[in-house]
């Protein structure tokens, strides 16, 4: 029976939803045909080497009858680059467009789909800024055609972070670490590094949060740097253009944005839809696109249009636009719940409805601004990554086992525990025979033992892991310990410490733009109380 069912992560499309999707595709192709774009369709199956520079690891792999490594395409831009490298007519500006499906392996059984339809344009051969303007114009034109009025254009640039970091004196390692922390909006890592750099400019103190109004403030203050001014001038040109031709569209900057793909080289333009908390379009300049295929470089600007976003917007009831959604806080039940609640309260969120939860799982704050949902700790990330939750409070033990498609913003330094290898007293960690390790954390365990150069048999348990060696199900365990009581009472000894565990604040990426003012206030408050940890109210 199960063989005749859908594979996890896939779906059939039929009826009204499919008709609407077809209508969207028709509007896109008709409009672009009229604008003299050339349609291109590339195969679903490509050689693996086409995607060498692709940084997503979740590609579906196939083999043909002679053992050639093939993939289901995870992206449509790189196949177009492959096409151009082989079929390029010299010194000609080419305007291409595509509509097609891409495939990406999603987190297993997460409810995320692994096939999605993408549409996009590629303006090839134009090195001038006209290409950026034309690309943005085309996308905003589509927004108008699809009746989506509330677009916020968010501008960034692939060169921005490097340009600013170059101005500051620091080692290559510090520069690399800072860039990573800024792009991931990891405030804890950013703060730690920032403190090691003398004279770090006050203006950039909250760099990972420098988007929206704060981003604009910082931008004006950095104009004195010539290389930064060049980038800012480009943003201003784009903003002026938008204001002139699309007066309802707002424009802002993100000074902490990462490049959507490593091949980006210049301006990045995204269209955000606040009521959905997701993007309508995204793209920019990538002059290094062809490097993977031939020696010569070729200027290019490309934009992808998210057909799912258009569909979502079309299928929304008109009243959904006006009602302001509450901010959804996803809380893990159990070990860290009490402390998480205390922290949210200290950060200014009225958590009083959570005081007597009984069997209820969903609560609203008295002011209606927040909604709390209580879930199993291992499900917190799922709710965020599926676009339901906005803020999550979760242990780094849980995070270590799952894909991360959100911002890991703050280590709250509460709920502290340690990952350890533990076993009965006669165990020998350095013995050569293959060990059987019981754990709730197979990823952490695999990483730990492969770093030691050891291949172990992992036995996944859902709880009471200590029973593993006591019943001879396993030789040892990898588990977290807080007080050490459980280990002691079960006569288990710690053989090695694997990593520290603590509670983290995570935020869905779209939520940061959607609820900027409120979320920045909460984060700022949390940072202040973290700084005053000696405060007796701070949960340990
Ligand atoms: C965790 C962990 C240990 C215990 C350690 O279990 O798996 O069993 O806490 O804490 P201690 O060092 O303070 O004694 P949890 O309470 O999550 O229950 P479970 O093992 O049944 O999942």
Automatic annotation (TrEMBL):
- Return the protein name: Multifunctional fusion protein
| Lineage of producing organism | Bacteria, Bacillati, Bacillota, Bacilli, Lactobacillales
Keyword list, A-Z: Amino-acid biosynthesis, ATP-binding, Cytoplasm, Glycosyltransferase, Histidine biosynthesis, Nucleotide-binding, Transferase
Cytoplasm found in the keyword field: yes
Checking Pfam families in the record gives:
HisG, tRNA-synt_His
Name the species this protein comes from: Leuconostoc carnosum (strain JB16)
User: Where is it predominantly found?
Assistant: cytoplasm
Q: How does it assemble?
A: Heteromultimer composed of HisG and HisZ subunits.
Describe the task this protein carries out.
Required for the first step of histidine biosynthesis. May allow the feedback regulation of ATP phosphoribosyltransferase activity by histidine.
What's an example of a GO molecular-function annotation for this chain? catalytic activity, acting on a protein
């Amino acid at each position: 029976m199960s063989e005749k069912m859908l594979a996890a992560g896939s779906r059939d499309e039929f009826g009204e939803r499919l008709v609407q999707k077809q209508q969207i595709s028709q509007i896109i192709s008709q409009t672009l045909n009229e604008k003299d774009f050339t349609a291109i369709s590339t195969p679903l199956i490509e050689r693996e080497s086409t995607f060498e520079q692709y940084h997503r690891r979740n590609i579906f792999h196939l083999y043909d009858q002679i053992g050639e490594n093939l993939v289901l395409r995870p992206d449509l831009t790189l196949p177009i680059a492959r096409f151009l490298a082989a079929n390029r007519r010299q010194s000609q500006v080419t305007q291409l467009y595509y509509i097609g499906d891409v495939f990406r392996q999603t987190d297993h059984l997460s409810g995320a789909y692994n096939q999605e339809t993408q549409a996009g344009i590629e303006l090839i051969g134009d090195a001038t800024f006209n290409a950026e303007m034309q690309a943005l114009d085309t996308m905003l034109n589509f927004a108008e055609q699809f009746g989506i009025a509330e677009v916020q254009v968010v501008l960034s640039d692939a060169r921005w972070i490097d340009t600013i970091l170059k101005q500051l004196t620091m080692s290559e390692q510090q520069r690399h670490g800072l860039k990573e922390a800024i792009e991931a909006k990891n405030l804890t890592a950013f703060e730690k590094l920032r403190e090691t750099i003398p004279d770090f400019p006050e203006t950039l103190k909250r760099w990972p949060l420098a988007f929206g109004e704060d981003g604009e403030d910082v931008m004006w203050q950095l104009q004195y740097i010539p290389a930064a001014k060049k980038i800012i001038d480009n943003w201003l040109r784009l903003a002026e253009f938008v204001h002139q031709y699309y007066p309802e569209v707002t424009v802002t900057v993100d000074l902490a944005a990462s490049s959507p793909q490593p091949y980006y080289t210049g301006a990045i333009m995204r269209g955000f839809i606040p009521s959905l908390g997701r993007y309508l379009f995204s793209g920019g300049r990538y002059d290094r696109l062809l490097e993977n295929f031939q020696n010569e470089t070729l200027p290019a600007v490309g934009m992808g249009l998210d057909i799912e976003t258009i569909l979502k917007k079309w299928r929304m009831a008109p009243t959904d636009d006006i009602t302001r959604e509450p901010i959804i806080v996803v809380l893990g039940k159990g070990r860290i719940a009490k402390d998480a609640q205390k922290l949210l309260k200290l950060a200014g969120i009225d958590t009083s409805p959570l005081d007597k939860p009984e069997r209820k799982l969903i609560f609203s704050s008295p002011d209606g601004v927040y909604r709390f949902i209580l879930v199993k700790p291992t499900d917190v990330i799922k709710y965020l990554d599926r676009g339901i939750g906005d803020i999550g409070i979760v242990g780094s033990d849980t995070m270590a086992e799952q894909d991360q498609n959100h911002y890991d913003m703050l280590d709250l330094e509460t709920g502290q525990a340690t990952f350890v290898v533990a076993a009965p007293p006669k165990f020998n960690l350095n013995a050569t025979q293959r060990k059987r390790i019981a754990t709730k954390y197979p990823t952490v365990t695999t990483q730990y033992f492969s770093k030691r150069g050891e291949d172990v048999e992992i036995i996944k348990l859902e709880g009471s892991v200590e029973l593993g060696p006591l019943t001879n199900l396993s030789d040892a365990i990898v588990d977290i310990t807080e007080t050490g009581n459980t280990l002691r009472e079960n006569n288990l000894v710690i053989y090695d410490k694997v990593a520290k565990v603590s509670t983290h604040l995570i935020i869905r990426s779209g939520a940061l733009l959607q609820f900027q003012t409120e979320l920045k206030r909460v984060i700022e408050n949390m940072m202040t109380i973290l700084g005053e940890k000696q405060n007796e109210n701070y949960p340990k």
